[in-house]
């Protein structure tokens, strides 16, 4: 779980995940949204892949990234459990 929270600690990586909520994007499309070098973006992609938060699929000369919501959900639910907070189901009273 530590590797997931380490990946989520950087604002650029969180912004990448926000972008991917809307659907898969190529590495170039994602990189164009940030004013950082290609090696820096590559490092961010590596951290997110290492944590299992994104999938990378080679499509010709491009890499298509998509979010892996199940890993993110498991990490957040696990963290909430360690903090003594139970996940509420939809429709459950607050």
Description of the structure:
It is elongated, with a radius of gyration of 15 Å. The model has no long low-confidence stretch (mean pLDDT 89). It has helices at residues 2-8, 11-20, 27-32, 38-50, 69-82; strands spanning 25-26, 54-59, 62-67. The protein has a 3-stranded antiparallel beta sheet with strand order 1-3-2. By secondary structure, the protein is α+β, with helices and mostly antiparallel strands. A hairpin with a 2-residue loop joins β2 (54-59) and β3. Helix content is 53%, strand content 15%. The protein has one domain: Winged helix-like DNA-binding domain superfamily/Winged helix DNA-binding domain (Arc Repressor Mutant, subunit A), CATH 1.10.10.10.
Name the features.
single chain; 94 residues; alpha+beta; Arc Repressor Mutant, subunit A; three-stranded antiparallel beta sheet; 3 strands; 53% helix; elongated
Strand-helix topology:
Elements: H1 2-8, H2 11-20, E1 25-26, H3 27-32, H4 38-50, E2 54-59, E3 62-67, H5 69-82
Antiparallel strand pairs: 1-3, 2-3
Helix pairs in contact: 1-4
Q: Considering the protein shown, what is the CATH homologous superfamily?
A: Winged helix-like DNA-binding domain superfamily/Winged helix DNA-binding domain
Shape call: elongated
- Which segments are poorly predicted (pLDDT under 50) over 5 or more consecutive residues? none
The fraction of residues in strands falls at 5-15%
Would you tell me which CATH topology applies? Answer: Arc Repressor Mutant, subunit A
CATH class: Mainly Alpha
Number of domains: 1
Q: First CA to last CA: what distance? A: 28 Å
Helix content: 40-55%
The main β sheet shows up as:
3 strands, antiparallel
The SSE order reads HHEHHEEH
Average of per-residue pLDDT values = 89
Rg (CA only): 15 Å
Name the strands of the widest sheet in spatial order.
Answer: 1-3-2
CATH architecture field: Orthogonal Bundle
Count of individual beta strands: 3
Count of runs of 4 or more consecutive helical residues: 5
Structural class: alpha+beta
């Amino acid at each position: 779980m530590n590797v997931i929270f380490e990946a989520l600690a950087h604002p650029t990586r969180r912004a990448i995940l926000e972008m991917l909520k809307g659907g898969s994007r190529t590495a170039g499309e994602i990189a164009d949204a940030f004013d950082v070098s290609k090696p820096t973006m590559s490092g961010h992609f590596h951290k997110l892949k290492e944590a299992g938060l994104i999938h990378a699929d080679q499509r010709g000369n491009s890499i298509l990234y998509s979010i892996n919501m199940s890993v993110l959900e498991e990490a957040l639910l696990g963290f909430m459990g360690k903090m003594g907070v139970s996940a509420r189901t939809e429709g459950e009273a607050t």
